[in-house]
Fold:
Amino acid sequence: MIRVAIRVHPSVDALEARLQEALTALVPVTFVSCPNLAECREGDAVISLSRDDELVGQLAQRKIRCLHVTTGTARTDDLPIGGKSIRFTRSTTLDQRLRGRSLLHEPMPGYSGLTPEPGDEILACCGDNPVWIVRNGGGSPMQVSSVPLPNFAAGETPFNQLRNRRFFRLLPLVHFLREVTAGSGWKNPPLRACLMLDDPNLHWTSYGFLQYAKLLDQAKSCGFHVAFATVPLDAWVSHPGTVKLFRDHPQQFSLLLHGNDHGKRELCQSRSKQDYLFLAAQSLRRIDRLERNTGLHVARVMAPPHGVCTSNCLAALLAAGFEGACAATSLLGKLNPHLLRDPSFGLGLAELAPEGVPVIPRFTLEPSCEGAIVISAFLDKPIIPVGHHHTAADGLDPLVRTAATINSLGPIRWGSPEMILQSNFRTFQEDGTLWVEAFSRRISLTVPEGVTEVGIYRPKGRASDTELNCAVVTNSVSGLERRQHTNGSPIKVGRDDRIQLHSLELGKIDYRQVKPPQFSLGAFPRRLLCEVRDRCMPLLPRQVIPKKWTSG
Structure:
């Protein structure tokens, strides 16, 4: 892969090392110091961090692609508590996923406004103050931002400055780097999404405030997919009509696992990998029984109760045969601080714990989640808003509106978490070789035209990555199947061959032979009481429902 040299004025030291590492993982760039801008040649890409505003006029006259962080116009009014919205214009310079959006943002200390000049094009405003513009001075258009880059606290990763309600300090920089490297780097997967609902089971035609048939009608008419994270302990009985509804509509409904017993802190305790393996194996045996009795398919994907799990748990899930997990990125990093050593944590298609399942991100489905949706889309990450049955307490409008926001981003591939994981990779082509960087333990792809070899790209620093050894199944157009190992070298393929790559660590232990965890006398009664509570909630006056019942 050819990396574009980005000149940083006055010195590359003005970009924190963690930020440089994160950015080079996202886009094909290298950063070099540029103390003297006069040495820049036509077509060079420059990041100007000197805050010398006299440079704006000079650089705007030259055919140099540039992002300049300026001092702007000092402001005397403080941002109110809670911050303001960042309002993006409909400029064609902007990534299509940002155009016309107004996203909530936390206060930004030290930010200033810009005073546009004739011919300037405004890209974004904070309140009524322009904070990002394009200046056309006769040479190449020059981008100017008045919001300084962040100063990272000890242990802080760039993800903390490029997420919902806290994104604008880095967004113009990432946007600029993508613009100057367009067509020369990784090809990310298309935007993929699902709405996820925790806890519902198949015991009846409804669960709490959710009426499955009504939700299905909305999913069909509005074009979205719902993945239900169901508790394996609930697999003891299923309603025939509900089973048929799910079985007949895999484009709209799918199932994944939600813990095992759904006990308190079930997957985030200080347990050994072996103890977590007992839980993982039991959950799969319960789901096996559900599949045999219903004919349904349940994705081998874990949505941990309360959205968090440990690295030991992730390793046990992989060994037992889970393809992935779906959890909140911030909580994952908080519980597993060793993952934060990777500067690109939270910015990729998934988090890959050493020898563990990949974790695709999810976030709360709420009225103010547009920012999380748009920033996930901007980073090409899976878009997975998650709610509960009480998300629909006042009807299905919250789900419909959230789906409409996602669909407004452009073409969306809606599907199950399993589909998302198996398409969770990026590629770049080098002559006849297609290099694949997998953010999953099992991926599927069809060989495009002009490709004669497929190779696995292994980023530096991922020493314990289980993808180092993969088995490959090639289903050729002739219908023949051949298996081979990558052994670190590209494999020969033919046009339109269907390739499956999977980690040899995936399911290396037969979960059917793993002994069950220690018996919990209270697990079933506790879960049954929770279900009764959820099912009775729609019958109660809203004012008497305890807040803690709807805060999960």
Observations:
- The two ends are 45 Å apart (CA to CA).
